C-alpha cells in the first residue's frame, strides 16, 4: 500500500511517506505492538481491510493542503501546549451551530470479538460496559463489534479501549465558519474556542475555492481522552489459584434453612 501488490512505487506518488515513518516511531515509543492479519471476505477489496485496520490503529488518512500530499495522522491524546485557540478574528458569522442527538444512547455494552491466535483462531471477546447508562435505563443494550484484522489479545484490548471511546463518545457535532488561520486546520486536528469549554477535533472540512472561507465540522475530542486504569484479564481468562498438594481438603457449603 498504496502501490498495490507487485507494483513498483513511482516518484510522483502524492504520499507523505515521512508521516508513515513518524507514525511507526510514535507507536514504537508508546509500546503499541500491533499484531494483525488480513483476510478478504465476501469479495472485500484491500481498501476495506486497510481502512478497518487504520480505524483500529487510531490513524487518520488525510490530504494536507499545505504540502499537497496525503499523510497519516495518529489520533491520540493532545498535550495542552499543542492545542491552538480559535480567535474571534478566525470565526465568521453565524454563531457555531451545535447538533445534539436526542434520546437514549444506542448502546451501553460493547462486545469486541476477534480471532485469537492463542486459541487456534477461535473467537474471543473483550467487553466494555457503560454501567451508569444501563442502570438508568433498567436494561442492557448490547452491540457486537467484529475486529476483522486482530489476532492477539493484548492488541484487541488496546483497540477495544480506543474504539469504546468512539462508541460511547458525545454524539453532538459542532459546525462553524472560519477564515484566515482557520484554513490551516485539517481533519484530525484539535482546537478550542471561547464559547465551548471542551477541546474540539475536526472531522470534516469544506473549502470555498473562491474565498478564504471554510466550514468545519467538529466533535468534542473523545478520541483524545486519557485511558482508563482498567486492565483486562490475561489471555486465556483468569489464572488458576495455586493450592498446596497433600493434606486435608475442606469444602464449606451453605444450604437454605428449610432443607435442615
What does the model show?
- The protein has helices at residues 17-29, 46-57, 131-137, 153-168; strands at residues 59-64, 69-74, 85-86, 91-99, 109-116, 122-129, 142-146, 173-178, 190-193, 196-207, 214-220.
- With 260 residues, the chain is α+β, with helices and mostly antiparallel strands.
- The strands form three sheets. Strands 3-9-10-11-8-4 form a six-stranded mixed β-sheet, with no helix packed on it. A three-stranded mixed β-sheet has the order 6-5-7, with helices on one face. Strands 1-2 form a two-stranded antiparallel sheet.
- A hairpin with a 2-residue loop joins β9 and β10.
- It is globular and about 80 Å long.
- The N and C termini lie far apart (72 Å).
Helix content: 10-25%
The beta-strand count equals 11
Structural class: alpha+beta
Give the overall silhouette: globular
Percentage of β-strand residues: 25-35%
SS summary, helix count: 4
Record keyword descriptors for this entry.
single chain, 260 residues, alpha+beta, 18% helix
Topology at a glance:
Elements: H1 17-29, H2 46-57, E1 59-64, E2 69-74, E3 85-86, E4 91-99, E5 109-116, E6 122-129, H3 131-137, E7 142-146, H4 153-168, E8 173-178, E9 190-193, E10 196-207, E11 214-220
Amino acid at each position: 500500500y498504496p502501490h498495490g501488490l507487485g507494483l513498483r512505487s513511482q516518484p510522483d506518488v502524492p504520499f507523505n511517506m515521512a508521516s508513515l515513518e513518524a507514525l511507526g516511531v510514535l507507536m514504537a515509543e508508546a509500546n503499541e505492538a500491533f499484531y494483525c492479519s488480513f483476510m478478504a471476505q465476501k469479495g472485500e477489496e484491500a481498501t476495506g481491510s486497510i481502512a478497518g485496520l487504520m480505524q483500529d490503529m487510531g490513524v487518520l488518512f488525510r490530504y494536507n493542503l499545505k504540502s499537497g500530499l496525503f499523510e497519516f495522522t495518529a489520533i491520540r491524546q493532545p498535550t495542552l501546549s499543542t492545542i491552538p485557540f480559535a480567535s474571534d478574528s478566525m470565526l465568521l458569522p453565524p454563531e457555531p451551530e451545535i447538533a445534539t442527538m436526542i434520546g437514549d444512547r444506542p448502546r451501553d455494552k460493547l462486545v469486541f470479538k476477534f480471532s485469537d491466535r492463542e486459541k487456534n483462531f477461535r473467537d474471543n471477546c473483550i467487553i466494555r460496559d457503560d454501567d451508569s447508562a444501563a442502570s438508568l435505563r433498567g436494561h442492557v443494550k448490547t452491540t457486537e463489534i467484529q475486529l476483522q484484522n486482530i489476532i492477539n489479545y493484548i492488541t484487541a484490548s488496546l483497540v477495544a479501549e480506543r474504539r469504546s471511546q468512539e462508541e460511547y463518545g458525545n454524539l453532538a457535532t459542532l459546525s462553524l465558519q472560519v477564515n484566515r488561520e482557520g484554513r490551516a486546520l485539517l481533519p484530525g486536528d484539535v482546537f478550542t474556542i471561547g464559547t465551548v469549554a471542551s477541546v474540539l477535533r475536526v472531522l470534516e472540512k469544506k473549502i470555498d475555492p473562491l474565498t478564504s472561507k471554510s466550514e468545519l465540522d467538529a466533535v468534542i475530542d473523545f478520541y483524545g481522552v486519557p485511558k482508563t486504569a482498567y486492565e483486562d484479564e490475561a489471555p486465556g481468562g483468569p489464572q488458576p489459584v495455586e493450592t498446596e498438594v497433600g493434606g486435608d481438603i475442606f469444602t464449606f457449603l451453605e444450604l437454605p434453612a428449610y432443607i435442615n
